[in-house]
Amino acid sequence: METTTTSGSSQSSESASAAFLAAGAFLLLLAAGSVYFYRVLAYSVDWPNSDDFDIFLGYLLRSESTTGAAQKFLLLFAPHNEHRVLLNRVFSHLVLAANGRLDFVQLVILGNLALVCSAVLLPRLLPNSKSSADTAGAFALSALLFSYVFYEASVWATASIPNFWVFTLTLAAIVSGSGRSRSAAAAGVVLSVLAALTQANGVFSLIALSWVWWNQGRRAKALVGAVLFIVVFACIHLTTLQKLVAGSGSSGETNLFDYLLFCLCFIGGAASEHSLTLCAFFGGLLTGVLVWLAVGGTRKLNPILSAFALFLLLTAAVNALGRAPMGVELSYATPRYALVSLMCVISAALGVLLHLPSRFKPAAAALLMLFSASYLLWSWREFEPQFTLRQELLSDSRLTWQLFEDGLAHPTPEHARQVLLDSVEAGFFKPPAEDENIAIERPAEVPPGAKVVEGGIVQLEQVLSSERYLWIKGWAFNRTKEYVCKPLAIVLVGKDGERFAFRTEIQKRADVSKHHSDKRLLETGLKLLVTKDRLPDRLTPLRIGVLLAECPRPVIALSRHRIGVSKE
């Protein structure tokens, strides 16, 4: 009797410990999500970026000019490259109806809400009889969705909506479709088709749904799902497939080895963006676990997780098909796709946790909590500077569009300019007033001993000139082991030796520091906006240089850029 009491007390203690772990993991998930959304709100800019011009503004203009309700409805499903971007278009109508104009910050938030939905759905990949330790592990892994590794998509409406929602819709489809009722199966099909119309790889959610039914022994439904996949694929992607087979759907050719390397790096990309070898190694490990889950590891125990693993493998394969010819480095250097890799990590870890003996699960859940917290802290420290860069990039784009009719655009500045002007005229978008928050830099003194030199490391990424303003942006430095010369001013040098110097706005350039593996190069960015009234009245060819100071011997490093100033 005493032994039974002791055993019961031990089980109660283990249960309480597992419940405590689950509560802690849930708090970690809440904290990660709160910090993430705070940063997204802080760094988002209400301005179109690249494809935003066409996917949102251009679409609304086409919809406005289209007559007839049926034609407007069909326009929602029109292709954009290899994708259908139905959700982007639906959200644009919702935001327009709510505000009377398009707000790109709100579109970004709508895209990121998919991460919340995925975090809610991921624990459903575990069986219904899951323990508190399983729940703790699922919560801890769901927190990884709020890391910063996919920063590029986090504050870009065109990228966040399809790249994030395709996973949410697929998860919802296989979770709903796994129900035994007809209505659950029908809901799964509808959600799968919606995923296919959200992003190209979403079409594989129908295969995932069919895989769920096959592993549940519902063979007739599985065959129906397979037929639906063929029909939907033919309707949406047959033309794209024909282009790929003909060799016209990508920018080059690739061999089988590079393709497989790309797949592995794509799957393991969340592990490291510094080493192809490390990415491929982790990608190989994750691929092995995902194949095990898809073909046998959880088919009978949990067909939902098996189906999602299959979806992830197909997603990696199809992304590699289209992207590998552009260069293997894109597999991990394009951060908007890092969520795919994180989903692979989460699914693989859930599969391992699911198969552990019960006595090991609390310790495993605690380790997953530690891993998730450490990974989140690493990603926040490593990639938060990239959020700052993207915010500055979009803010600068908004300013240069106001003053120079030039900035981030797709496919060409001329096309984007017309779309922007037409959208403003139609009332779809309202840019900020001209000269709002414009900072004119003050003149600077050039040190008497500064020597004009050719060379140095000077990269002027943007040199724009209008009737009123001159805009210069880029980075520059000179370094030795002992010191680093940093930009202090832009110097315009005339043929007769005249110098016109203006103190620049110093910017942090984490990308430059990271590229050169030197933390001392963080504050090497420069930005200048100056009125033409401060420049000579006559037509003068001026060479653009950068005054590099804060070092023993300041120099004026000349760039290759020249401007002519003509004021009438």
Mean model confidence by pLDDT: 84
**Distance linking N and C termini:** 103 Å
β-sheet strand percentage: 5-15%
The helix/strand series, from N terminus to C terminus, equals HHHEEHHHHHHHHHHHHHHHEEEEEEHEEE
Poorly predicted ranges? 1-7
User: Strand tally, please?
Assistant: 11
Helical residues, percent = 55-70%
Which overall shape is indicated by the principal axes computed on the Cα atoms? globular
Number of helices: 19
The biggest sheet amounts to:
9 strands, mixed
Radius of gyration: 27 Å
Explain what the structure shows.
With 568 residues, the protein is an alpha+beta fold. It contains 19 helices and eleven strands. The strands form two sheets. Strands 3, 4, 5, 6, 7, 8, 9, 10 and 11 form a nine-stranded mixed sheet that branches. β6 (484-493) and β7 form a beta hairpin. α1 packs parallel to α17 (361-404), α8 packs parallel to α10 and α12 (256-267) packs across α14 (303-323). The longest helix is centred in the last third of the chain and has 44 residues, at 361-404. The chain starts with a helix and ends with a strand. The model is unreliable at 1-7 (pLDDT under 50).
Compact summary:
Helix content is 57%, strand content 13%. It is of the alpha+beta class and 568 residues long. The strands form two sheets. Strands 3, 4, 5, 6, 7, 8, 9, 10 and 11 form a nine-stranded mixed beta sheet that branches. A two-stranded antiparallel ribbon has the order 1-2.
Attribute tags:
19 helices, two-stranded antiparallel sheet, 568 residues, single chain, 13% strand, alpha+beta
